[in-house]
Amino acid sequence: MNRKIMMAALAAGAAVWALTGCAGKQAETVSTDGSTSMEEVIGVLGEAFMQNNSGITFTYNPTGSGSGIQAVQEGRCDIGLSSRSLKEEEKASGLTETVLAYDGIAIIVHPDNPVADLTLEQIAAVFTGQITNWSELGGSDAQIVLIGREAGSGTRDGFESITGTEDACKYRQELTSTGDVITTVSANEDAIGYASLSAVKENVKALSVGGVAPDEATVKDGSYVVQRPFVLVTKTDAKLSDAAQKFFDFATSEDAVELIGGAGVVAAR
Questions:
Q1: pTM more than 0.70
Q2: Exposed / middle / buried, residue 22 (Cβ in 10 Å: 0-12, 13-18, 19+)
Q3: For the chain, what are the domain ranges?
């Protein structure tokens, strides 16, 4: 199935889910909700799953990690999708995380920006407003424009946790999806942002961090330090429907490893 058609089908399914309530209550439907950063990998897995299970409808609602966690907690979907680990209080409330894959968080700039590498300390200084001009980093004499994600985003949580900038970033804009961040940075030569490595295309440039370029190999071996888990979230004491369990088993199986790698992330298996 063509990827654009597949994602349209998932979106249509999400619209149906929104009208009918918790799709997980329908025996032959699997509903997922959450991280926009996981769109590529969940699209690949959903496509393959439906091809092999023609009687099951798979839906994906891209609402963000925090919303996905809340959705599964409230019983509005089968499986939540989070691009951060669950917090202790979320686990204590009855949720379980299963790490599906590991994803690099790319630090992105406009392709024409001459800066190619920053240290983790420089990145923190930029996003907290201690460094405000690209000339301080070997770039042009221009004010740095900081683009980030909204509160509740798993990508933001991961980025700020790794860089030690929680509640200290001076964003010019806080956007609600990975795609919006990439589009905004691609249109502004002075902008810098962060996005899931799996979503980065040629319209932006991913910086090296401490001399290490972000790619599958450096995420896998841990040398690229700005990385986070992609997590499947389920209720600890609630049994998944047969269809949802079938998808969960497939997504976490050896059969899915190559598909996950093809989506630009590193399978946890």
A1: yes
A2: middle
A3: 3-102+229-267, 103-227
